[in-house]
Amino acid sequence: VSPHTSGTLVRLPDFAPQSQSGENTYRSRENARVFRSKPVVDVDPKCLLYIQQREFAATTPVDNSVTVLGSDDATTCHLVLVRHTGSGAACLAHCDGSSTWSEVPLIVKAVTSLSKDPAKEGRLELHLVGGFDDESKMSHKLSLSLLSAFQRQKEDIHLETCCITEMNDVLVDGAHRPGVHGIGINIKTGEVFPASFPHKGPAEELRSARTFTGGQMADIYDSNKGVVKIGPCKWSPNLDISFWLSQDDDTILKYLSTSPTAEPPHFVQHIKSTIQFLLEHPSSDSVFPGGQPQYYRRTEQGDWENVNQT
Question: In which order are the strands placed within the sheet that holds 48-50?
Answer without folding.
Answer: 41-42, 192-196, 183-186, 68-71, 48-50
